[in-house]
Amino acid sequence: MFSETGHGFPIVTNIFSMFTLLVVIAHGAVALRRFPAQIGQWRALRRHMNVIKRKDSHAWLLYACRALCPNGH
Questions:
Q1: DSSP per-residue string spanning 11-58
Q2: What local confidence, expressed as pLDDT, does residue 20 receive?
Q3: What is the pLDDT of residue 17?
Q4: 70 DSSP assignment
Q5: Which of 40, 33, 25, 34 lies closest to 61, judged by CA?
Q6: pTM of the prediction?
Q7: How far, CA to CA in Å, does 23 sit from each of 9, 20, 28, 65?
Q8: Do the Cβ atoms of 32 and 20 come closer than 8 Å?
Q9: How many angstroms separate the CA atoms of 34 and 68, rounded?
Q10: d(Cα 63, Cα 73) in Å, to the nearest integer?
Q11: 3: buried, middle or exposed (CB in 10 Å: 19+, 13-18, 0-12)?
Q12: Which of 24, 45, 59, 67 has its CA 20 to 30 A from that of 16?
């Protein structure tokens, strides 16, 4: 993957970077489909979390909120 001078090919780096960016964008688009889009859906989710005390429901919401934070916290 190196040229005769020992350096890499910039086009290979650019193609790999674009592919990685497309994968990240596709992953984000698919993940966002799982979020409630309307206020009624959010209310139903909160009601569900209050009625059914399961840790995985709370963990899902925590992970979803952490994924939306720009600084990752």
A1: HHHHHHHHHHHHHHHHHHHHHHTTS--SHHHHHHHHHHHHHS--HHHH
A2: 94
A3: 95
A4: T
A5: 34
A6: 0.52
A7: 22, 5, 9, 21
A8: no
A9: 13
A10: 10
A11: exposed
A12: 67
Residue 71's pLDDT is 62
Instruction: Provide the residue count of the chain.
Output: 73
Tokens 């020992």 belong to: 6
Round to whole Å and give the CA distance between 61 and 47.
13
Q: Dig out the tokens for 41 from the structure.
A: 């859906």
Cβ–Cβ contacts within 10 Å for residue 45, how many? 16
The helix (H) or strand (E) run that includes residue 7 is none
pLDDT digits over 11-66, tens only? 888 999 999 999 988 887 887 777 777 888 878 878 887 887 777 767 777 777 77
